[in-house]
């Protein structure tokens, strides 16, 4: 049997568009003489639909699209992720996989493990399935599961869908899993480890089909997999693009696709590019604007923006103040020339003087502090928002995760924007991305990468005047935010305990800023946003 694994890029709620894409790939699978075509979780409506699931017209539109798909399906069996309505006590929906053949629903599998951690909140909407599904097709028996059902762990769930498959009346010949699994750096390794162990323990090959594309802060990477019963990777679809992987059940060999799948910094760049492109295009934008300071954060953001949208659709604006060095202006201009995008320069010294005059009666006799620095940042934010409004360009903000964590950013200033491109990228990773971007040719001027980082909001300012070295800061942030370690445990690894306490204090103090930040693209295991829910008002001290 030839099986096509198709990773699609849906738009949540765009049922006509999503259906057209599904039918397009069904035709391609039929042209490849496939007997079965498999699509990801909730392919018709897109994942995650969130509270749209509470809207009856949304569910009605989904069902109409499903009816149309069934009506047009001919000459091939199809597995697809759908919403299934239910009656009785409990939630009103199942998250299901349907097996469609001969223009009818032949079999169905209901997702049993509903994740409610990090960015997931499926228990809010769905009732859990209670039985595992094995169905016959062309002399084979196929075990069918939905996403989390193959991520079972004893610590998280009582039910084990895979155990139920193994002890059922019919033992499957292979396992198919349809998924919408978001990307983070390191996810490829985790998937292969978990899936390989699953295949070895159950002596089953696995066909894993994953969604691709950007949806709000999430990026789905594709990388659909075929793993044999020895736990070996037989092939993988492309990452970060729609793709079809064809596999033959006689030997579980794929007709095309890679046999190695390693986590690499280039995947982070690809995820950010896809996240920017899909966020803008799916919300109706084609052009972007950003402030280009001559620093590394805005440089990396500019490169990503140009890759995502095309340099002709990106406007970079330098806004020097009296504290801005000529090197910063020259480097910003050189970067824009290297990228081929538009570049404008707006001098803000006179605007700063106007603010000083207006505030002088109230601030006379008081020393300068962060207030004056924040005014500079807010002037720039206002100018960029004016260009965004006037020309219909989405403003890309340029702050990184390290700064967002400790509040080294200005509300309504450098935090202004519609999308925070690198808000989940630690500063040390920003440098990795910059070096990657210069791998083939110099795109980012070398001085941007080698000079000490500075906001240039006061004379001779350097980030390390106010922050610990980024290597130290990022290590503490990863331990605290992503590994959930406590202060004493982090300090035991060799970091001064008072420094750790100060970093944790800053994280808590600046929760209010992050609540007002633009949406950021998730590329680490724990991003600020819907996957990290902490109160602004709290009195807990570690």
Description:
This protein is an alpha/beta fold. It contains 16 helices and 20 strands. The chain has helices at residues 15-31, 56-72, 161-166, 187-202, 265-282, 296-309, 326-339, 349-363, 370-391, 401-406, 427-437, 446-450, 470-482, 487-491, 497-509, 511-515; strands at 2-7, 36-38, 77-85, 93-101, 104-110, 133-137, 140-146, 174-179, 206-210, 212-215, 218-221, 225-227, 233-236, 243-248, 253-254, 288-291, 314-318, 342-345, 394-397, 419-420. Strands 5-4-3-2-1-14-15 form a seven-stranded mixed sheet, with helices on one face. The chain has a six-stranded mixed sheet with strand order 6-7-8-9-12-13, covered by helices on one side. Strands 18-17-16-19-20 form a five-stranded parallel sheet, sandwiched between helices. Strand 6 (133-137) and strand 7 (140-146) form a beta hairpin. Helix 1 (15-31) packs parallel to helix 2 and helix 6 (296-309) packs across helix 11 (427-437). The N and C termini lie far apart (58 Å). The mean pLDDT is 94.
């Amino acid at each position: 049997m030839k099986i096509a694994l198709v990773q699609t890029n849906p738009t949540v709620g765009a049922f006509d568009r999503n259906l057209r894409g599904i039918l397009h790939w069904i035709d391609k699978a039929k042209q490849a003489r496939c007997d079965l075509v498999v699509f990801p979780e909730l392919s018709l409506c897109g994942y995650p639909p969130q509270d749209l699931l509470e809207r009856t017209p949304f569910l009605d539109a989904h069902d109409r699209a499903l009816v149309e798909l069934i009506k047009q399906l001919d000459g091939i069996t199809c597995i697809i992720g759908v919403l299934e309505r239910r009656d009785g006590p409990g939630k009103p929906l199942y998250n299901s996989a349907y097996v469609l053949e001969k223009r009818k629903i032949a079999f169905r599998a209901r997702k049993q493990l509903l994740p409610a951690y990090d960015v997931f909140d499926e228990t809010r909407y769905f009732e859990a399935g209670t039985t595992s599904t094995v169905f016959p097709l062309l002399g084979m028996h196929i075990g069918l599961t939905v996403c989390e059902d193959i991520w079972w762990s004893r610590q998280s769930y009582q039910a084990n869908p895979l155990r139920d498959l193994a002890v059922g009346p019919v033992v499957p010949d292979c396992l198919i899993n349809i998924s919408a699994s978001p990307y983070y750096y390191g996810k490829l390794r985790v998937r292969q480890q978990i899936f390989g162990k699953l295949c070895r323990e159950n002596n089953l090959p696995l066909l894993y089909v994953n969604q691709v594309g950007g949806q709000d802060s999430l990026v789905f990477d594709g990388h659909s997999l075929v793993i044999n019963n020895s736990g070996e990777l037989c092939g993988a679809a492309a990452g970060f693009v729609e793709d079809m992987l064809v596999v033959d059940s006689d030997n579980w060999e794929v007709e095309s696709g890679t046999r190695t799948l390693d986590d690499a910094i280039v995947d982070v760049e690809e995820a950010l590019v896809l996240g920017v492109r899909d966020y803008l295009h799916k919300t109706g934008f084609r052009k972007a604007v950003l402030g280009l300071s001559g620093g590394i954060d805005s440089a990396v953001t500019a490169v990503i923006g140009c890759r995502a949208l095309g340099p002709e659709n990106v406007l970079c604006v330098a806004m020097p103040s009296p504290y801005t060095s000529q090197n910063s202006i020259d480097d910003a201009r050189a970067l824009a020339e290297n990228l081929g995008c538009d570049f404008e320069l707006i001098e803000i010294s006179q605007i700063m003087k106007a603010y000083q005059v207006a505030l002088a009666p109230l601030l006379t006799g008081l020393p300068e502090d962060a207030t004056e620095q924040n005014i500079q940042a807010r002037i720039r934010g206002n100018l960029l928002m004016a260009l965004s409004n006037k020309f219909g360009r989405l403003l890309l903000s340029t702050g990184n995760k390290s700064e967002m964590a400790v509040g080294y950013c200005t509300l309504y200033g450098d935090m202004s924007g519609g999308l925070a491109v690198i808000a989940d990228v630690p500063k040390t990773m920003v440098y990795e991305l910059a070096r990657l971007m210069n791998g083939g040719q110099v795109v980012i001027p070398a001085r941007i990468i080698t000079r000490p980082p500075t906001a240039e909001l006061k004379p001779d300012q350097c980030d390390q005047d106010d922050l610990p070295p980024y290597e130290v800061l990022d290590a503490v942030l990863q331990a605290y935010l992503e590994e959930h370690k406590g202060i004493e445990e982090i300090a035991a690894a060799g970091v001064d305990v008072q420094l750790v306490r100060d970093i944790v204090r800053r994280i808590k103090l600046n929760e209010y800023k992050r609540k007002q930040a633009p949406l950021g693209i998730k590329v680490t295991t724990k991003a600020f946003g819907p996957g990290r829910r902490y109160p602004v008002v709290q009195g807990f001290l570690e």
